[in-house]
Amino acid sequence: MTNADETVAPERGNTPIAECISTISEALERHDLAKVREVAAGLENPDLADVIEELAPEQRVELIEALGADFDFEVLTEVDEKVRDQISEALPNDVLAKAVTELDSDDAAYLLESLEADDRQEILDQLPQSDRAALERNLLYPGETAGRLMQADFVAVPPFWTVGQVIDFARDTEDLPETFSEIFVVDPGFHLLGSVNISRLLRTKRDVPINTIMEADRHMILATADQEQVARQFERYGLMAVPVVDSDERLVGVVTVDDVVEVIEQEADEDAKLLAGVGDERLSDSVREIAPPRFLWLLVNVLFAMVSASIIDLFGGSIEQMVALAVLMPIIASMGGNAGTQTMTVTVRALATKELSDMNVRRVALREVTVALINGVLFACLLSALAILWFGGAGLGVVIAIAIMINLLVAAVAGMLIPLGLQRLGFDPAVASTVFVTSLTDVVGFFAFLGLATFWLL
Amino acid sequence: MTNADETVAPERGNTPIAECISTISEALERHDLAKVREVAAGLENPDLADVIEELAPEQRVELIEALGADFDFEVLTEVDEKVRDQISEALPNDVLAKAVTELDSDDAAYLLESLEADDRQEILDQLPQSDRAALERNLLYPGETAGRLMQADFVAVPPFWTVGQVIDFARDTEDLPETFSEIFVVDPGFHLLGSVNISRLLRTKRDVPINTIMEADRHMILATADQEQVARQFERYGLMAVPVVDSDERLVGVVTVDDVVEVIEQEADEDAKLLAGVGDERLSDSVREIAPPRFLWLLVNVLFAMVSASIIDLFGGSIEQMVALAVLMPIIASMGGNAGTQTMTVTVRALATKELSDMNVRRVALREVTVALINGVLFACLLSALAILWFGGAGLGVVIAIAIMINLLVAAVAGMLIPLGLQRLGFDPAVASTVFVTSLTDVVGFFAFLGLATFWLL
């Protein structure tokens, strides 16, 4: 049973996705629809999404048509944007309208939004009233907010019902979400009074009034709240489901932790990528999409590198007299860049996870400067010994020692101040911090080393 | 109601944590225990954990004693390791034993593990049999595995029970987990037959047999599986709760998505930090803890920088003749480093999220090389124009153009091959990729530029 991953494989067993793709593709060519259905039935939605992405455009539509009613349109929320656009253009609007009624409202909103305005309206017009209302509640809110992330279908009951009435309501009502973990208790104006986890409901006798077992919700989210803040709140307080309210404090939906998992992953991923100047790239993006932003990032780098080059030019005469300076100067610049990147990464991540606050910023700053001083002294000894052994002359050793200490201190201070400053100015601290920090340590490194050498040695 | 965060604040309202800390600290000094309890009652566990971390060591224990039975020991799983050690040493073992019985088994295991071996045994001996069994099941498995992450308390029923019997069992049994979302159906040997989401249970008539509504679990996790793989599976398949089985396929626990949220955040965080050489640092670490690993990372950098310096030294004569080479060479090296970091970051993240696989690695490699060629040509034009304007002489322009194209191509190839190679060798691709890539582009940049200049221009 143990496979390479040490987790137990889902039903498709150990068949690699690549194999499913070729099997399905060949079966489609042969019009062997039974085979297509058989392979697809063994796949879960994210796997089927991978298959669809790799098929040729016309085969994608053939596959969906072959699966007919067995095709879960949630799969389309998992495929790449371009693939989704291609498929939703190829499928007739009434098929899409049927798909939308079967989806959770957040997934339906996501799917609808990728359509052209007139198609979207035509599909909305075809929906039953209750589906349309929930969906429009999601569409009210812009992307990346709690209102878009939330499930607008939820179970809400009045406070005077008993546990038995709630259970009977759940048993008799067709139009409830497929799974839910909280029952919300609301007043006639849909203001939230409290909630009951259904495991609590299950364990309570039928004649108990619901308002005696409900708990006040310590956490509520405004529908306009940014999804990243929502994610932080879930993570910090270990939440499973949180009610979403509008500006009049009326219950409009519920965000569950599984909706948030993807947001958390995305945000952390984004930070790592922003630091390298490849912010919103996806692996599926084409050359045309990624080349221009990467060009811009490198261009900013060139502009800063020209500043460092001008510093070197300033001391061109010294280099002509003492070529050892040209040999050693990149070492000082690169040390500063690396040390600055260390402090900066720690700062950026601590800001992102809200660990760094006014409460501890002084302690962290003191720690970073102390580390810079300690490592500065150690590398000053090491590099001056290296310089003396390589080129002779104690003077060069002293100059490189002082230059490296200055540069590591500047790296520590800039590594903290630049992300903090960017955040205070309202930017994401991960954006462009790298280029600022490494450019500054280049300039300071070259200037300190070449400047000191020029005035003392030549 | 709207506060700055646009989410609705928990009960403590807008009182900043810093204020709670000083209020509690002052109240403890005055022995005003009523005030202490009042402020603490308004705090949720993660907030109370923050307060405890910032208090003086003796005040931490005073606070816990003041709260008495109101203190939720889950708070101790949220404080920093050193703070937890200090508190658990200061508290008597019988208080800790009582605490452990009240915790979920995964939290209890986490807490117990931080104790010294003899204290741990003494506490285990004081536990009731059922608590000890669950706890020991967690402690069986090493850290960072599913077995440690799982909740070893769960609700399991035989297949021949009806829905009504299950509900009555849940109502009448004291010793169930506080909240649960799945009922597991097992045979007498505790082998998993299927599971029922409790919202499904709630909506089904009492006389229906449970085995007619249970669903086969498409996902199971081996207790020995790595927590990162578990997290990926939850994320990919949007899972809420997954049963954990031992090597004999017996049900031993359940991992829920809220346990996984922290793992996902940690793993993404780790990648961003590993790339900068500050892998397992925490913000609360002391200077003594972070200085040595940072020193080592910088030392590796110095060793690689010496290789670049030797390349420059090799062409010392050329630099003496033409100081423009020393001015321009850092531009080429830094361009290569930045372009290489772009490709490398994309590769490292795509490997981490399992987006990059044998299926698409050729397409991605082709894309990266194409981008390098396009940007290479653009920067070749730009930099050769710059060089000619700055220093005159078309020769220098041609040399810098060729050098930058070579370096951007090498950056793209190395940015993919180095993380892929590290992974194939069994290392985390994020470790040390940066230093390898940027050192290589430094060496190649200096060598190509100075070498071409020496043979063509001098």
Automatic annotation (TrEMBL), chains A, B:
Domain CBS intervals: 214-270
UniProt keyword NADP, yes or no: no
Membrane topology designation: Multi-pass membrane protein
Gene3D superfamilies (alphabetical): CBS-domain (3.10.580.10), MgtE N-terminal domain-like (1.25.60.10), SLC41 divalent cation transporters, integral membrane domain (1.10.357.20)
Domain of life: Bacteria
Record function comment: Acts as a magnesium transporter.
Protein name: Magnesium transporter MgtE
Record organism: Hyphomicrobium sulfonivorans
